[in-house]
Amino acid sequence: MEVNIHHVHAHLLKLIELAEHGEEVVIARGGEAVVKIVAVPTRPKRKLIGSARGKIWVFDDTNSPEMNNEIQEFLNNNPLFADEEH
């Protein structure tokens, strides 16, 4: 989108909003492009890796077939929400 500099004075907030939504806004003076408004790329939010270090322990056999069988048996025989008869 190309706009005249006089249009910018009246509609700057709207032009910024357009740029934030991915529109490339070019400002022209005397019919010649002089400035481009583009959104500043945002950084993805950081994940706090290791924030629980020293608070959580994982045993060596956590992902063993025996442990997986025990977990599966527990889940099958001990449902978290038992159906109640009224």
Q: What would you say this structure looks like, in words?
A:
- With 86 residues, this protein is α+β, with helices and mostly antiparallel strands.
- It has a domain of 36 residues.
- The chain is 34% helix and 16% strand.
- The chain contains 2 helices and 3 strands.
- Strands 1-2-3 form a 3-stranded mixed sheet, with helices on one face.
- The longest helix is centred in the N-terminal third of the chain and has 16 residues.
- The N and C termini lie far apart (66 Å).
- The relative contact order is 0.11.
- The mean pLDDT is 77.
Keywords:
86 residues, alpha+beta
The 3D shape can be described as rod-shaped
Structural class: alpha+beta
How many helical stretches?
2
Number of strands: 3
